[in-house]
Amino acid sequence: MQEKMMGFMCKKCGKVMYPKHERCLGCKNTEFDEVSLGDECHLITFTKLYALPRGIEMSPLTLGIVEFNNKVRAMGQIMADDPEPGMDLHPVWAKLRTIDEKEVYGFKFDSIV
Ligand SMILES: [Zn+2]
Fold it and tell me: Which CATH architecture has domain 38-113?
């Protein structure tokens, strides 16, 4: 089970990306090192979704963009009850949804307790 959220650092120019791309967005290089994105990020923006695919239990679903300390941004479900742009969050490995009775896990972002 994956517990740390990993980014991909270009071996040539050092740009960190998430998720992984075939080629570096900075220099087109194709070789990367996995690096931890860290445990802290903050919320950039979010929206609430009311029309959801089957298998998602949270309704409405809060979908947001977070930024880590190294400036890498990621999109994901926000678990905080009362999300505010700028609030501190951290990635947690949790169930995202159920598809054909299979549970799908990934990273969500929860407020720091
Ligand atoms: Zn690069």
Answer: Beta Barrel (2.40)
